[in-house]
Write a structure and sequence with these properties.
Layout (H helix, E strand, L loop, with lengths): L3 E6 L2 E6 L11 H15 L6 E6 L4 E3 L4 H5 L4 H20 L4 E5 L2 E3 L1 H8 L2 E5 L5 E3 L13 H9 L1 H8 L4 E3 H7 L4 E3 L4 H13 L11 H7 L2 H19 L4 H16 L1 H16 L2 H16 L17 E5 L3 H14 L2 E5 L3 H20 L5 H8 L2 E4 L10 E4 L5 H12 L7 E4 L6 H5 L8 E6 L8 E6 L5 H13 L3 E6 L6 H17 L4 H11 L5 H8 L1 H15 L7 H8 L12 E4 L2 E5 L1 H6 L9 H21 L6 H12 L8 H8 L1 H15 L7 H9 L8
Parallel strand pairs: 2-3, 3-5, 4-6, 5-7, 6-8, 7-10, 11-12, 11-14, 12-13, 14-15, 15-16, 17-18
Antiparallel strand pairs: 1-2, 8-9, 16-17, 19-20
């Protein structure tokens, strides 16, 4: 079946792209061939004065190029050939002897936007589903069908760099303000407005576009100004990526090259750089993460396909502190559900309501919400000190502090208040869910929903299932987590679950390094060089040292001396050093900003200086995490290695360019990993004994993944 339909009305060709058998439009080899022929046909048709290009999909214009074809590339030469073909196709939109108007509704991304940029005019709907972007750097490549050439010329260098270097996707309203689209209209009149624009353009009309003021002229459109912009952008990229990601630097190169030497030379440079990046290890790892997260969006968390999720329209939140407010505010914002808070003191309820509403206000200020929608969502938030509203809840999430007895009391009270089909979830970070559910009449509806802080920003949700948890409760929690915009992994009920389980020995080892006389700055710097967004010492301060101590006690009780908490950390908490939240931890803070190392940290650690080679700082930290990840996946804490790696990347910021801890172990090889662990064991102690699964894998040369 054809992907394109064509009809002509009053001299304006109406081209509709609707890829058969696919939920979204994408540019495949067959689509490219058909579109070439269609554009050639239009070129020779004298009855056609202009063209309107539309999508037949409900909420998608063009999602981009076919990623499957990209993954199949085996050499830079193949990649170069592929991208040159894409450039030739996109160029035809701009080289046609009649104006083409892109009528955009839904997602317009990657090659889809590049095609639209080559058109003479762009009309987009103001619908929330209409999003515009060039996300290629998130896959370790660059926009190479003209995106690095046309976007800077259209909206200026600074605006283009903001989109391209971060792989940003923006709503159509912002794309209009930036000048990426020329008109913003209601979906009902999209086609009508696009046809009028095509007719006017065919009659010789030239659209006037805002080129910015004097400041924009000086920075964006003069050689000296561009030099300043590119220099600042390069420094910012290096600061943000540590040089681990080559794609943003390549994009800077392609843009600068094209602006100096012209569009044709810039396109050639784009193609060359794309060819080099596309078959590189960083891109391969980022693509693997993309496919893994895409697969997780369809994974319901249970093996039985017939299990149905319960509908969730009303959510109860017990505990209106920082985490509870974040969960409630995000649930309202992203899922549009009614949220009722409950806490023991009215002042705490008010603080929670204010914090939840602040999440909505921030979106309103950034124009991500209209005033009407903000008012509607704001009205969904309520709270009190009683159980009013809870009898109609479909899901209740407990977010009180980490104390088993308190949580059990809350769940006991809840059973008397909610319906029999209401899912009861605990936002605990370490306490086993089965222990919380002990003594309840219906433990099959109890589940863990471990959110990460800050909830509105962190993308991961761990859904924790016990031996008693019913499949319908699992599916309900997973699907609601997705409605909240989270990437969801299903985790077996064990202390620490997945993320905190693998994080615990890593943070413990950081404390041991301090005890061995390594400075906190050197420890943090080592892991930032490795690719983590922050070092382990900074992470401890961010989490809160008191929270870390509580979690470490749970882990120690479950796993023994291997995960024993550091005495120095306990003494820091006893002295009132809780981390960023009270201004004193390993570092000092004033008004939330770090000021330097707090000497108290060294005073209480009873430092026993010993020579630690710089290479061993990284090895001790990284292999403590890798070894624990191998143990946990062997114990089936996660359902498959994919979930473990996504949990590590999205939950603790494990460097995406390394693919996750299990991918990295595959890259290292089980034999080499065991050898490194044995050397660390001999030098530093029994906590580095290789996980049994790694020893088994070393004997058979096995891997966690079969696609390597």
């Amino acid at each position: 079946m054809a992907a394109f339909t064509l009809d002509v009305q009053d001299g304006i060709a109406r081209v509709v792209f609707d890829l058969p058998g696919e939920p979204v439009n994408k540019i495949t080899a067959d689509v490219s061939h058909e579109l070439h022929q269609l554009l050639d046909r239009l070129r020779g048709d004298r009855k056609v004065r202009g063209v309107v290009f539309l999508s037949g999909k409900r909420d998608n214009f063009i999602a981009g190029a076919d990623i499957d074809a990209f993954v199949a590339l085996e050499s830079s030469e193949e990649a170069l050939e592929l991208v040159r073909g894409g450039q030739e196709l996109v160029n035809k939109f701009g080289e046609l002897d009649k104006p083409v108007v892109a009528a955009i509704h839904g997602s317009c991304l990657g090659a889809g936007l590049e095609a639209a940029l080559a058109c003479a005019y762009r009309v987009a709907t103001d619908h929330p589903k209409t999003t515009i972007g060039l996300p290629e750097v998130q896959l370790g490549i660059i926009p190479a069908a003209g995106g690095c050439q046309r976007l800077p010329r259209l909206i200026g260098v600074r605006g283009a760099l903001d989109i391209i270097l971060a792989g940003k996707t923006v709503p159509a309203t912002r794309a209009y303000r930036l000048g990426i689209v020329d008109e913003l209209v209601h979906p009902a009149v999209l086609e009508e407005v696009a046809f009028k624009a095509a007719a006017k353009l065919a009659g010789g009309w030239k659209p006037r576009r805002n080129r910015g003021g004097v400041f924009s002229l000086l920075l964006d459109r003069t050689p000296l100004g561009r030099k300043v912009v590119f220099s600042a952008a390069t420094k910012q990229v290096m600061k943000k990526t540590g040089g681990h990601y080559p794609a943003p630097l390549a994009a800077l190169d392609a843009i600068a090259y094209g602006l100096r030497r012209g569009v044709a030379a810039g396109l050639a440079r784009e193609a060359q750089l794309f060819g080099e990046l596309a078959v590189g290890d960083v891109s391969r790892k980022l693509v693997q993460i993309f496919f893994a997260t895409t697969a997780l969006k369809k994974d319901r968390g249970v093996d039985r396909a017939t299990v149905s999720a319960h509908e969730v329209n009303n959510v109860g939140l017990v505990g209106s502190g920082f985490m509870g407010a974040g969960i409630g505010g995000t649930a309202v914002l992203r899922a549009g559900v009614d949220v009722r808070f409950r806490d023991t003191e009215i002042a705490r309820v008010k603080a929670g309501l204010d914090a939840a509403r602040a999440i909505l206000r921030s979106r309103l200020k950034r124009r991500r919400l209209t005033k009407h929608k903000h008012a509607r969502l704001d009205a969904l938030i309520s709270g009190g000190t009683d159980w009013a509203g809870f009898p109609r809840a479909d899901l209740v999430i407990e977010a009180v502090f980490e104390d088993l007895d308190v949580k059990r009391q809350v769940f006991g009270d809840l059973e008397a208040q909610v319906r029999s089909d209401c899912v009861l979830a605990s936002n605990t970070s370490t306490i086993p869910i089965a222990r919380i559910a002990e003594g309840l009449r219906r433990p099959e509806r109890v589940i863990g929903m471990h959110f990460f802080s800050p909830v509105e920003k962190m993308p991961l949700l761990e859904v924790i299932v016990t031996e008693d948890t019913a499949p319908w409760a699992t599916v309900t929690a997973v699907e609601f987590g997705r409605r909240m915009g989270k990437t969801v992994i299903v985790v077996r009920d064990q202390p620490g679950f997945w993320v905190n389980r693998i994080l615990a020995p890593y943070l413990n080892e950081a404390g041991r390094l301090v005890q061995d006389g390594v400075s906190v700055e050197d420890i943090d710097a080592s892991m930032k060089r490795f690719g983590f967004p922050v070092g382990p010492i900074t992470l401890l301060d961010e989490v809160g040292l008191d929270v870390a101590v509580k979690g470490s006690r749970v882990m120690h009780a479950a796993f023994g001396d291997r995960l024993a908490p550091m005495a120095g950390l306990l003494r820091l908490v006893e002295r009132g050093c809780l981390g960023r939240k009270n201004g004193r931890g390993f570092y000092r803070y004033e008004k939330g900003k770090r000021q330097g190392v707090d000497s108290t940290a060294y005073d209480v650690f009873d430092i026993e200086p010993r020579p630690v080679p710089k290479a061993d700082i990284e090895k001790r930290l990284v292999f403590s995490l890798l070894n624990e990840a191998a143990r946990a996946v062997d114990e089936e804490v996660v359902r498959m290695p994919r979930d473990g790696d996504i949990g590590a990347v999205f939950g603790i910021g494990y460097p995406p360019f390394r693919g996750g801890p299990l991918r990295q172990l595959d890259d290292i090889g089980a034999g080499r990993a065991v050898g490194t662990l044995e050397r660390l064991q001999q030098a530093y102690g029994e906590r580095f004994v290789p996980a049994p699964v790694l020893s088994r894998m070393a004997e058979s040369n096995a891997r966690f993944y079969l696609d390597g």
